[in-house]
Amino acid sequence: MPDELARTLLSEQQIRVRVADMAAEIDADYAGRDLLLIGVLKGAVMLTADLARALEHTNVEMDWTSVSSYGSGSTTSGVVRMLKEPDSDIAGRHVLLVEDTTDSGLTLAWLLENLRARGAASVEICTLLRKPELALVEVAVRYVGFDIPPEFVVGYGLDYAQRYRTLPYIAVLAPHVYATS
Ligand code: IMP
Ligand code: MG
Fold this sequence. Notes:
Elements: E1 5-10, H1 12-30, E2 34-41, H2 45-54, E3 59-68, E4 81-84, E5 94-102, H3 106-116, E6 122-130, E7 143-147, E8 153-154, E9 170-173, H4 175-179
Parallel strand pairs: 2-3, 2-5, 5-6, 6-7
Antiparallel strand pairs: 1-9, 3-4, 8-9
Helix pairs in contact: 1-2
Bound molecules: inosinic acid and magnesium ion.
């Protein structure tokens, strides 16, 4: 493991099992309906792709949005900006917003509002990770992969300054990495 990483938090196997469980839940909830998955770039790429392939009884389309709420550092700015609009017309669609992690909840709260305003038939949220101790606003998240401690993590899509996204597991970033930057 690179020395910028302190320890493994979630193994590849743990992630695989939990994602399969979430997919089964989503499949049951949306069975027979058309579902639009909207992944939040870039962090949710892995989760969105894995969920999409695991959904067997639901007609799934994939779309993407991108927002900026973080710089290259590790603390929230609270300011959300949409950098990429979803390509799809969302009006009347059942949307499942797929996010990598929610800390303060500000990003998801903003996205939820934004997609609802476009006239979606329903908008639910799936997040791989959630850090309950950092929540500043309450967001109703339908599917949560793991509740984790308030540490900065990387891997399975999550980055630190664009690095470590491609790790198949999730690791805690060593505090010395962001303490000095
Ligand atoms: P929030 O608006 O405070 O909930 O921040 C959520 C966003 O910050 C997520 O979409 C992530 O992109 C980013 N983020 C929060 N925590 C982490 C982390 O531990 N590792 C990598 N990115 C994170
Ligand atoms: Mg993100």
